[in-house]
Amino acid sequence: MDRSDGYVQEIDYTHGYSSELAPGLVELACVAAGVTTVLRNRPLRYLEMAFGQGVSIAIHAAACPGEYTGFDFNPAHATNARTLAAASGSGAELTAETFAEFVTRKNLSQFDIIALHGTWSWISAENRARVVDIVRRLLVPGGVFFVSYNCWPGWATELPLRHLMIQHAERSEGSLEQRIDAAMAFAQSLIEADAKFFKAHPGLEQWLADMRGRSRKYLAHEYFNRDWHPMPFSEVEGVLRAAGLGFVGSAKLSDRIEGFGLTAAGRALTRGVTDPVLRETTLDYLVNRRFRRDLFVNQPTALSPAAREDRLRAFSFTLLQLPAQIKLNEEVSCAPFIEAMADGGFAPKTLAQIERHGACAGVEFADLVKAALYLTSEGSLHPAQSREVIEQAAPRCAALNAAILERARRGEAIAALASPVTGAGVFMAQQELLFLGARAAGCTSAEDWACLAGETLTESDPEVLLSNARAFARIRMPVLQALRVA
Ligand SMILES: C[S@@+](CC[C@H](N)C(=O)[O-])C[C@H]1O[C@@H](n2cnc3c(N)ncnc32)[C@H](O)[C@@H]1O
Q1: Which of 8, 133, 206, 246 is buried most deeply by CB count within 10 Å?
Q2: Do 128 and 196 have their domain in common?
Q3: pTM, full prediction
Q4: Domain identity same for 178 and 61
């Protein structure tokens, strides 16, 4: 059998970090949805399937204590993931296996979290059935399955265009990159020939133009697999319900805020839809959703409202941005929460402590929860680990981060560093990694950071680099130090 099963192997995947896979965020999303899980237990047993370059699992294995297992059938991906994970000494077990190979392994262990990110829509029906089989057999009761996928109705107009391009790519010659370019040029030639399909969907011309600006790596994995199956939520929920899993909610925390991002009419309409599947479907149409990140729990049990509040009060949080950098939204009042969080530097605070803070006097607990969910969803806040766990994870994070900084010096940027405080990754731009690398090499001034970064970024304007290094020292360094990545 062809191990690739129609999946692109010719071009490796990008080195992205997916924050939504962080155990602390998954746990917060489940508690906010009022569901009991096993995620309070440490060490966690975490399986990430089809981990790509393995950046997320390497970071989580370093930063959040647990036993991490992962596989991806692309040998180059697995090698990269193993090298990264080995740098921290986390002991993550990362292999080059297909779903079919993994599911037939002897002595498979049980897991508290199983994650499959950005893959469900891009694999065959047989492989999706194997995924479900793995989850059904290996997820403990109270364990969480994270699955993300392209969904309806957001992709409705692009589906036929993608079909046209894949038909062309399958029949043309050359490397995959050349066939991708030829397929996009062919689609453009149809637009220029006044094809009525494009006249009926005028937005597609711009979409095609945007695609031409994307990296060929991204396009290969996103659109040029044999399989590409955007699905309605109801179909995914139905398959997983049949395997004993219950839908908990979106992993995107702002989706846990009732009515967030909807018009007044949209809010009123969703209030009247009580069936959970029809409700999610309605929401997907209201926001024209393209991508879902869903959490399912094996045999979920509901937390009582009082137990949910108690659990939320016990959550500790830390800021990921200086207050002045935080993007506010008029739908959620965040100012008192941010003021309380920022008091006394960046020390983590529980929601109970925030509730007692003077700045939050008179603020309803439900509104503090909304603020916490919104800020976390925006990447301005994150659950924090206990002091003991932070100390345990700190040396592993330091070792992994040193390896990531060294890679950045060689021009190979990984988009995040590991924080022992959050048990998760912190997004970093390439320049920022180079400034930190220069600092780790002993340079103390922004001038020297910019100078050393310029040795890697030979085409950058030195003046711009210097101004970026100064801004980095002022805006990012205090936060990175508090998160113990600098
Ligand atoms: C779009 S990438 C997503 C990677 C990663 N989860 C992320 O979000 O960054 C899909 C991944 O699935 C892997 N994959 C595809 N088919 C597979 C199979 N049959 N068995 C195991 N891995 C597979 C690919 O190698 C690729 O790394």
Answers
A1: 8
A2: no
A3: 0.94
A4: no
